[in-house]
Each structure stands twice: as structure tokens, then as C-alpha cells.
Design goal:
mainly alpha, 12 helices, 78% helix, antibiotic resistance, membrane, transmembrane
């Protein structure tokens, strides 16, 4: 019986890790889907560290995929800082815009974390927030912006930053909200995608660093070490291939299919759950 329970535990965490990893990069809300799956399948998560670890796995996938952009931005940032090289100015500004865009989610997350978790992380709310995500994706489905990395402004960064803050609500996709905002201010799809996922890095890294004590103090960490490792690996692999897939979809301008998905799931949640 104990072996059966251990196998169930492994399968459960493997599945949840894959689910979070696959849904994190695409605009359908990973947090909303985790809440829905827990409700539908009556799955309880033992321990406090699961979501922190799987989000860190997604972060690693983003770092791997955007490693060349990160290296270029870092090199040009310090080159402009030290030599005032005009050719590096665009990347220097781009990094500062990422910093600015990170602030709204950080501030609102600290101030309203308890309210969001207690009042807005309910299945009844997620049905409606998925509809909002779908509507936002539908609105920008045919937009083709003109702004490249070097054309961004402080106002653009703040708008995208506040969109990321709104996505703290489960059911509002982080990638969806930031990409929608980026395209509404005129960014090209490639620039919007890059800005969105480079913006994910400081937020995810900050959450991970601030949560190290919580992970180390988790009383279940020893008992769940193997399930956590399995979930981490599943989330890492799923995030990597999901983001690669999504990049191709963005290049082809097929966001409307994610809008349809959010509409269908949102309506089903409102009607039946």
C-alpha cells in the first residue's frame, strides 16, 4: 500500500510540474490552470515549495532560450556605462525599461498578495478572468506593430509593467497580459515576445530568492524531495518546448487560437464548476 501511495505521489507531482511548465509560457494562465486542476481532480499539494520550484524551472528554460539576448544586453549595458558607445545605447535603455516595468508587479504583489490569494484565487473568479484573457488576446490578434527594441519609451515600459501586475490575479495570463500591452503600444510581435519573457526573469528570480527561507523551512521538503525533483524536471522540459512552440505561433500571428481556448474554458468553468 505504501508503494502505491509513493507511486501516486510521484505521478501527481510529475503531472502538476508538466502542467505548470507547459502553461507558463503560453497565454492561458498557468496559475489559473493549477487552481482548476486541483479543484477538478481534488488534488492537494503537500508542502509550501512546489510552485516556487516549478516557477524556477520555467525561469531556467527562459534563460536558456534567451541566453544570447541576455549576454548581448549585459555586454552593451556595461559598454555604454563605461564608454558611452552610441551603438550600445539602445540595449542600455532596454535594460532600464525592464527594471522600470518590474516595479508595478513587485509593489502590488507585496501590498495585495494576501487579498489576491484569499479573494481572487477562487474557481468562480478564474472563469471570468480567463474570459478577460481571451478577450484581450482577441483584440490584438491582427495587430502588427512597428516598434523595435530601440524604439521603446518609458511610457511603454510602465504600461507593460502594470499589465504584468494585473496578471498576479489567477486566470489573467502573465505572458498574455504583457504581450497584449506591448502590442497595444505598438511593439512588433518579436519585440513584444522578447520584452515579455525578459521581464519574467527579474520577477521570477526575485520571488525565488525571497522564498529560499520558505523552501528551507518547509517541513515536507525531505519527504517530498524526489517528487519535487520530478516536478522540477517536468516543468523545465515542458517550459522549454512550450516556449519554443509559442515563439513559432507568435511569428505566424495565430494568437486567436489561444483566445478561443480561454473563451471555451472560461465559459465551461462559469457554467459547470
Amino acid at each position: 500500500m505504501e508503494t502505491v501511495n509513493e507511486l501516486y505521489l510521484l505521478i501527481k507531482y510529475l503531472f502538476l510540474g508538466f502542467l505548470q511548465g507547459f502553461t507558463e509560457p503560453i497565454p492561458i494562465s498557468s496559475s489559473g490552470h493549477l487552481v482548476l486542476v486541483r479543484e477538478l481532480m481534488n488534488i492537494e499539494i503537500e508542502g509550501l515549495s512546489f510552485e516556487i520550484l516549478v516557477n524556477f524551472a520555467s525561469l531556467i528554460a527562459v534563460l536558456v532560450i534567451y541566453r544570447n539576448d541576455i549576454i548581448r544586453l549585459a555586454q552593451n549595458f556595461f559598454r555604454y556605462l563605461s564608454k558611452k558607445d552610441p551603438g550600445a545605447r539602445g540595449d542600455y535603455q532596454f535594460i532600464w525599461y525592464l527594471v522600470v516595468a518590474t516595479i508595478p508587479a513587485g509593489v502590488i504583489g507585496v501590498l495585495f498578495e494576501e487579498f489576491i490569494e484569499s479573494k481572487l484565487s477562487k474557481v468562480s473568479v478564474i472563469g471570468y478572468t480567463l474570459l478577460i484573457t481571451g478577450l484581450a488576446l482577441w483584440i490584438i490578434r491582427n495587430l502588427r506593430g512597428r516598434k523595435n527594441d530601440g524604439d521603446l519609451t518609458l511610457k511603454d515600459a510602465l504600461i507593460v509593467g502594470f499589465a504584468q501586475a494585473v496578471a498576479l490575479i489567477p486566470g489573467i495570463s502573465r505572458s498574455g497580459a504583457t504581450i497584449v500591452a506591448a502590442m497595444l503600444v505598438g511593439m512588433k510581435s518579436e519585440t513584444a515576445l522578447r520584452f515579455s519573457f525578459l521581464l519574467y526573469i527579474p520577477v521570477s528570480l526575485g520571488v525565488t530568492i525571497l522564498s529560499v527561507g520558505e523552501i528551507l523551512g518547509d517541513p515536507n521538503i525531505s519527504a517530498l524531495a524526489i517528487p519535487y525533483v520530478m516536478a522540477f524536471a517536468a516543468a523545465l522540459i515542458a517550459s522549454y518546448y512550450s516556449l519554443r512552440w509559442f515563439m513559432g505561433i507568435m511569428a505566424r500571428g495565430n494568437l486567436k487560437y489561444f483566445a478561443f481556448y480561454c473563451f471555451i474554458v472560461g465559459i465551461l468553468v462559469i457554467l459547470f464548476i
